[in-house]
Amino acid sequence: MSPRENGPEEEPVIRDNRKIDPETGKAREAAGGVPEAAPGDQGTETAAAPAEGSATDLLAERTADLQRLQAEFSNYRKRVERDRIAVKEQAVANVLTELLPVLDDIGRARDHGELTGGFAKVSESLEATVGKLGLTVYGAKGDPFDPTVHEALLHSYSAEVTEPTCVEILQPGYRINDRILRAARVAVAEPSEEAAPEETAAGSGGPDEN
Length: 210
Hints:
Layout: H1 3-6, H2 44-111, H3 117-132, E1 135-138, E2 150-158, E3 165-171, E4 173-176, E5 179-182, E6 184-191, H4 195-209
Parallel strand pairs: 2-6
Antiparallel strand pairs: 1-4, 3-6, 4-5
């Protein structure tokens, strides 16, 4: 008995459950007209935004860290350079301070005319060398007295000065740039309080006698 004799032949029903239309490549609409999301598409757009923001924040944080490290290194390098210069200047100052008595002896020998021959050449070479290191001598007769750079060992009054004045240099001063190694030791004279009245009286009395 053939299948047709048993009843009407039913055609097989084929259901295409694929969510992507192979002809158009688009998502098919589910029941209710809402397109079905393709596998793996759910949450892709929502996850992309936080990931992008996280990368931007991380880049900004790393950039700030690098800038901070660069600033710290720059400050460290400047501090090391300042310390190096300070140590060098202190070492030079210490050496020159020890040489000041020798320079005093050379100065006294020159004042007494004893700086001659080979000793004169050695002393000139020494003075030139300490000059290259920045050592300078100061203090001259007639300089206004400055307590920041002068040390007064003797004091007197004089009618020949109008302000406190160094009338004698007992020992010259030495400095490196603006740094005082040794203050100049001087004799100071101040204006006499009685000098002005006496001069005035003498001047007024002259015409009367004539």
